[in-house]
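=== RUN LOG ===
request id: a7f3
mode: sequence -> structure
chains: 1
length: 270
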Amino acid sequence: MQIIDFTMFDLFKKNENKGPQDVKSLRDALLRFIKAELQKAEGGEGSHIKGVNLFITAGGNEKHVYEAAVYTDEPDKFKQEIQKIADDYALDLPANWVLEISFDEPVPSEALRSKELEAALFIRTKDNTLLKTGSAYITVLNGEAEQAGYQITSDDGKINIGRERKAQVAGGFFRTNQIAFPGDSANPGNKFISRQHAHIEWNNEDGCFMLYADEGGVPPDNKVKVKTVKDDNLVKLHSTQIGHCLIDGDQIILGDSAVLEFSYHSVNQE
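=== RESULT ===
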């Protein structure tokens, strides 16, 4: 008599506590959750919606299932599926709405938690702001800074990056660089670091750390570039007014060869 072990099918069943576990069912459940909340927002009028923040709180093996469900390797694909649902239900989302999916980040109290899924949602409108906080880690991969690594938080304000801790700039003023590269270092990575090269600051509206080039970090002086982990592109910052939203794994290149890695996870925690 053949004995069939039905436990192997549990992965594809809906667990009352954890929700659907296979990728397709999980994706459908996430989309239903988002659709229901979009319909509630603004009385069903989507034109006031500015963005959607989806927080995934699953850990371990479940996290990988969620990553597959939201197409982590194809960032725009899940947004397209949400857009299709919005069109089907006449939710009238504006053309410039933004989707942000966050893993391993604290869920703000304003977010709506799903009862079935390891997920929470915050819908940003023109009249509300997502009050998030964050912390991250900067690791020096090339070049010589005062420290091998730095922890930064959303409460730090502007975090200056440049040559020397105290650097005199135009007008005789002095600037403090929290991430400082000593000017007397023999490390070749320090050679093209400007006194006021770049800075990082928290953007509360978008819930991320932004990197900006400063006066010494835009052409024709030294440069600021980012090797993005999302699509392996090289982003060049040409303006002091337009920043780059940093994501886990991005590498910041200062001058010719000084490199900083941005991460939400401390090296000591890995």
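=== NOTES ===
DSSP finds three helices and 19 strands in the chain.
The two ends are 49 Å apart (CA to CA).
=== END ===
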